[in-house]
Task: structure prediction
Amino acid sequence: MNVLITGISGFVGSYLAELLLEKGIDVHGSIRWRSKRDNIAHLGDKIHLHECDIRDASSIRKTIFESKPRYIFHLAAQSFVYTSWAAPGETLMTNIQGQLNVLETMRDIEWDCRCLVIGSSEEYGKVREDELPITEENPLRPMSPYGVSKVTQDLLAYQYHESFGIDLVRTRAFNHTGPRRGEVFVASNFARQIAEIEARKREPLIMVGNLEAQRDFSDVRDVVKAYLLAIEKCESGEVYNICSGKSVRIQELLDRLLDMADVTVEVKQDPSRMRPSDVMVLRGSAEKFKRATGWKPEIPFEQTLRDLLEFWRERV
Result:
């Protein structure tokens, strides 16, 4: 069985590729010519790479028709919320046009093909205290250009399923982290700063943004297992939350990492790390998804953070 992972060289794509290879699945991946390939270098010739820009309709069409996948995991996106404030046009173009190009191509496919559309908890945005935990029925009130782009991807997928019968499953994954996570993301950024301080490559000062926000974290290795279960078992056209069901204050996340550190540091807020508007609390319910698949997160958050810190220690 062939599968296609768009954005295979990214954080999640690389872990998903590993999981699929372990199961004996033939893995194809789309990659932009200028993308870094560090995350998939260890996979060598075990995967089939296709140079592709998802914003180019002819490019993604060529990739899909060459790989003839049974499943498409559409991961390629501009996925950093902070960047979406600096480059809203690029974020909207990449995420929305990329999704549209995949869906339009699927209208012409003559073999059985199902797509997993990767949404985000950022779609929910402004959540009131009495709306927690967040279910799939919560209103969508995105608070960033990134959130708006993911809502649009989500609803485009719904519309194409209803209008054209496209076989797809929609997911809204909450925060996930682990080794290989890009340093712009909060847990990975803290871990890298700590590793650099331990190695005496920076002053014992950690720069932070909003430490009061609360997020629902899972380990990326649990999330990719969820993605495979979703595309195999979930109902076409439906949407499912993927999350731990627990929220962690960013201050607590930092404190846990500092407890693992071999140094004493000062913590200082950096105004440039603050967003124009921020989602204060995200805590989800994955009950619908668990009922459909039997999935549950297995890796403790403490282990995720420890593995992430060791990842950066090795590189620093």
